[in-house]
Amino acid sequence: MKIQKYEDYKYVMSDTSFVYLGAKYTYEELIENEDVPFKLRTILERYIMPEISGDTTLEEHFNKMSQDLAFKTYRQLKVKLKINRPDEKKNLFGKVTRRYITETIPVADYVKLSPERKVGIVIQEVVFGKLTLMTFAV
Q1: Cα–Cα distance, 95 to 54 (Å, whole number)
Q2: Which of 28, 35, 82, 128 could bridge across to 54 with cysteines, CB 3.0–4.6 Å?
Q3: Who contacts 128 (Cβ-Cβ below 8 Å, separation ≥6)?
């Protein structure tokens, strides 16, 4: 029996519509994790893993992703990324306060961002729709 310890942004959750993966998982860990749906593990193994090393985390991969097969696969699966991005806001007195905004965006929108815009952004989780997983031919 494998005992799992808590680590920030390393989790697998699912509800009736979506599968949520923590962005700090490496691809090897995801493929070995039995909580990840079998079809998703197969997609990762066949379409994503041939292009990158297994010790790459999801967050690292999305930060350096280009218009390659992995991007096309994630776009076809309609993957969304839950991110925290820094934002500065001025109050009435001119004081600037820094805050973080959490939002969920499609993978295509994130990949379009320039490297300068990605600075300070933390990817929390990767969201897969169960319906799109079901319709994806392996």
Answers
A1: 45
A2: 28
A3: 18, 19, 20, 21, 40, 77, 79
23 vs 26: CA distance, rounded Å: 8
| Closest to 82 in 3D by CA, of 105, 111, 112, 61 | 105
**Distance (Å, rounded) from C-alpha 14 to C-alpha 26?**
19
Q: Would you call 52 helix, strand, or coil by DSSP?
A: coil
Of the candidates 86, 85, 91, 56, the one whose C-alpha atom is nearest the C-alpha of residue 70 is 56
Q: How many helices, marked H, and strands, marked E, lie in the chain?
A: 7, 5
Other C-beta atoms within 10 Å of 125: how many?
Answer: 22
